[in-house]
Every structure is written in structure tokens, then in C-alpha cells.
Amino acid sequence: MKYDISKQTAPAMPTLGKGMECIKLLLSQASKDMHEPLVPMFFPILGAHISGTKFQYPDNSWKEPTGMMANLVAHSGDNKGQLTTLANALCRDFSKHDDDEVKKYLEWQNLKNSRGANKDKPAEPQLSYWFPPTDTTKPAFLKNAIALEAQGGRTQYFNLPEVEMADQLCGSHRQVSVLLRNVYDRAQAGALRATSDGVTGNPILRACITIASNPDSTRKFYRYELTNGTFGRMVFSYKPRGERKGKIPRQGKYDEEFYQKLDEYLLRLDICKGRYIIRPLNKLIDKLAEDMASLADLTDDDLMFEISHRSLVSAWKAGCVLWVLNNQAWTKSMGELIEWLVYHDIWSKMTVFGDMLGKETFHESETQRRGPKNMLDDLPDSFNEAQLEALRTSLEKSKEGTKGQLHNWINRKFIEYSAQTGLYTKTSEYLKGTLNIEH
Fold it and tell me: What number of other Cβ atoms are within 10 A of residue 329's Cβ?
């Protein structure tokens, strides 16, 4: 397996090569300690710039690069604020559009107030906001979704500096699950909406969301969302506590040259329309799905396998964005980053929430959290059934699952069984890491 996510150390991001020029440009404005944590956060912002475009997923369904959601998790004072600075830079065109919409509203309001009581009042303009403020309420969110759909199906983008702000956007914490799942799945709002003008539409919820939060508030916020699908739909990017270096990290200057280059990439997203099939990306996602099944068999972790399904979809959407940014061409380096995004997401989830998954408590210390354990690596090259059974017991897994796990390992050619000795032996391909799981 290319990445070991059982350790506390984050999977190392691959070198950004050909086709990654936009990502490198964005990272040029971030301090080095924030490079890996920020990369997964770029894609919801970039994806919000694409509208009127669909891509075919490997299951033959057509998806839009909307509904992308990512949560940056880092300790207080660990430079999470750089995400907002970059989000504002990426959404300069959104902010300009929204400023124009505000002017339209003020002009309408002045005209309405200038007319006497007996004169016809001008109709309120249908305004749409692409980069709504962080204190947007759920009714405003839905009203904006109606306007965006009427104007061609644009995506609204939210950057929430605190995870608790999602409660107001969703209506309440009890409604977080439903709304975020509907946003991810590009579903309709689910109910007609009553206003002073009568009953309005039931819009498709096109939105992308980024959130920044510290580990404690993140764990508390998602405590009851770990098994209902909301947790899997959110991409997590965790930054462990930094070293005590006594140096203030340096950010970029965001000069005119930077914005000129950035606008060239954003234009590629804005003008992309139609339907596309990115075959190298789909082939990669099919292969990563096999890897996730192999990892689940090695760890005997059904929950990790379930989480991986949506990690693959989220990474695939990021791949669609990269393809557009690179003038609709695919490169090996892009594939390497997509693979890393999958593992980084799962590692982040297991590191931040590992002790909470399937449990009621959430007070474990950071050092007690672990990712999925590759049990085969903890066994000698030749071992018997009793040794695996003892290992499973030490990891609080059932003895009854031992035979099934051995059967899966044999089917995947991780091990071979000798009836003569009664021992299971790791295959040479597994030991060399060449068992059809390298890319």
C-alpha cells in the first residue's frame, strides 16, 4: 500500500509536478507549515467556480463539482486563518458580483421608498450571492439557492471560520445532518418554501463549504454525525500541533502578478461547460476502490471501508477540477495527488475521531487516537490461526472473525496456506509491496 495511515504522522504529500501549476501558485502565498493541510481545502473553493458542467463517475452517473465540503482541523494559533485569506483571494470575482447585487438592492429600495403610497411599487429584484457572508441563515440560504438556480445553476460558496457557524446555516444543530448531506448529494431542498409572495420553488442545493476549527470543537460538533453519512461526506484535513520554533510563519504578498496568474486559471473554470468523461481519473478511482477494500481486509475495519466510499467521490471531484485547471489534460502528477487526497482524508478522520467511532465518549487524549491497524504487518512472515486470533483479541476484535479474515487474505493473495505445516505465510508479492496495489 502506498501510504501507511496507521501512524500518527500524516501521509506525505507527493511532489507537485506537471499539471499542478495552479495549486503551486496558491501554495506560494501560504507558509510552508500549511502546505499539506491547505491543499484539500482548495478544491471546494475552486469547484464553486464551475457551473453548467457534469462529469461521469465510474458508476456511470453524472455529477457536478459542487457539494464539495472540507474541514481544516488545527490547534488554536496554528495558522488556520490562512485559509480565509486564500479563500478571499480565490473569490475576488465572487465578491465583485455580490457587491453589484447589493447595489441593485439599494437602488430598488431607494426607488420604492421615493414613491408615494398610492403609486405602484417596483418589484423586488431577484438577487443571487455567490459568496454569502458567514452569518447567513437557513431561510436566506434557501432563497439564494432559488435565485441561483433561476440564473443558470451557480454554486454558492461558504467559508466558515468556526464549525459552530454551520448550525445557523443549517437552521439548528439538529438539522446539520440533513442539510449537509443534501448539499453533498446535490439534492433538492426537500420542501416548498412559503414567502410573503406565495409558495416558491424547491431548488437544487448547489453549495461548496470550507470550515476551520480546532480539534476539541470539531470532535464535539460531529459527535452525533459519525454514523449517519454526514461525517463521510465531509473531507477532513488535520494538522498536528506544530513544533515550538519561535518563528512567525511567512505568508505571501498577494501582488498584482499573483492575481493575474490566478485569474487565468479561474477563467478556465468559469468557461468550462458541457459533459465530460475523464477516463484516466476514472481508472484511478476504480483502482483506489480496490485498494480501500484491501486495506479494509488487512485491518478488518468495516467502518473505514464505508468512509472510504465518499472519500473516493470527494477526491474524484477534486480530480475533475484539476483536469479543467490543466486545460482539460491529465497528468501522472495529478493522479498522485488524488491518491494522496484519499489517504489524507481517511488518516485525518481516524486521527481526530478514531477513539470516538462506535463509542460514546470523546475525551481521549490526542496520543490515544490511532488510524486503522494493518494486522498482517504485526504478524511474523509465517504464523498460525491462533496467533491472528490472539492479535484480534488484543485489538478488541472478535475471535469469530479470524477464519473470515484469513479467507479474505488468501483470496487477495496476501498470504498462502500450507496444509502440511498448518501455517500461513505472507506472499513474496505482499512483502515486496508489489501485489497489484502500487500505482
Answer: 14
